[in-house]
Write a structure and sequence with these properties.
The chain has 232 residues and is mostly helical. It contains 11 helices and no strands. α5 runs parallel beside α8. The protein starts with 6 loop residues before the first helix and ends with a helix.
Length: 232
C-alpha cells in the first residue's frame, strides 16, 4: 500500500468510534511534536509515546510521518473549503476574491509555521510524497486550485477564454511563492509578507485585466505555449 497516497481509503477501512479516537489522538500528538520539536527531528516512536499508544498502533494508522502530514493537509483543506467558497461568493471584484483564498490559506497554516519550512524542503522533488507537486498530493492540490477556479469565475474582469483553463493553477503557484516568502520572513509580525501580498496581488489582477487586450494576444499565446510544455 502506498502509505502517502491512500490516507482516505485507510481511514474508511478502519473507521470505528474507538479507531477514530485513536487515530485522532495520534494525529494531534504528531502535530504537537512537529510544532515543538520539528518535523525532521520527530520520530514515529516519539509520536506513539506522546499519544500514549504502542509503536505498532501508530504504524497501524499511519505508515509514516509523511502519511500523518498528508492526513493533516487533507483535514486542513476540508475544514475550511466550503467556508472559503461562501466567503468568495460575497465578493464581485477579482482582487477581493483572490484575497479571500489567500487569507484563508495563511490563517490555516499559521499555527504550523514552525515545521512548514522543513516540509517545503521536499517541494522540488516531485517523487517525494510531501511535495506539493507529487502524485500523492494531487487531490489536495486540485482542491486548492478549485478555490482559485471559483474565484476567477463571475468577476468584473473578463478573462480570455484561452487563459481561463490555466489561470487557477497559475494563481495557486503564486500562492505557493507567497507562502515560501512568509515562512522565511523575519520582519516584525511578518509585515513584509503582508506588503508583498498587497502589492503583488494588485499587479497580478492588473496583468489579468490587460491580458485580454488585442495587443497582448501574441504575448499571451507565447506564455500559454510555455505552460503547455512545463505542465505535466
Amino acid at each position: 500500500m502506498n502509505s502517502a497516497a491512500t490516507t482516505a481509503e485507510v481511514v474508511r477501512s478502519r473507521s470505528t468510534p474507538k479507531a477514530d479516537q485513536t487515530r485522532r489522538r495520534i494525529l494531534e500528538a504528531a502535530l504537537q511534536m512537529f510544532r515543538e520539536k520539528g518535523f525532521e527531528q520527530t520520530t514515529m516512536r516519539d509520536i506513539a509515546r506522546k499519544a500514549g499508544v504502542a509503536l505498532g498502533a501508530a504504524y497501524y494508522y499511519f505508515a509514516s510521518k509523511d502519511a500523518i502530514v498528508l492526513a493533516f493537509y487533507e483535514e486542513m483543506q476540508e475544514s475550511r473549503h466550503q467556508i472559503t467558497l461562501d466567503e468568495i461568493a460575497k465578493h464581485r471584484k477579482l482582487r477581493d476574491r483572490i484575497h479571500v483564498v489567500l487569507d484563508e490559506r495563511f490563517a490555516l497554516l499559521a499555527p504550523n509555521l514552525k515545521f512548514l519550512g522543513a516540509l517545503f524542503k521536499h517541494s522540488p522533488d516531485t517523487d517525494d510524497p510531501l511535495s506539493p507537486f507529487s502524485p500523492a498530493t494531487q487531490p489536495i492540490r486540485e482542491k486548492a486550485i478549485e478555490l482559485f477556479q471559483v474565484a476567477v469565475e463571475g468577476t468584473e474582469v473578463k478573462v480570455p477564454s484561452d487563459l481561463m483553463p490555466h489561470l487557477p493553477r497559475l494563481l495557486w503557484l503564486y500562492q505557493l511563492g507567497l507562502i515560501l516568502f512568509w515562512i522565511y520572513d523575519r520582519s516584525e509580525e511578518r509585515k513584509r509578507t503582508t506588503v508583498l501580498m498587497e502589492k503583488s496581488l494588485a499587479l497580478v489582477v492588473n496583468l489579468v485585466r490587460i491580458s485580454g487586450l488585442p495587443l497582448m494576444r501574441p504575448v499571451r499565446k507565447a506564455v500559454l505555449e510555455l505552460l503547455e510544455m512545463v505542465t505535466p
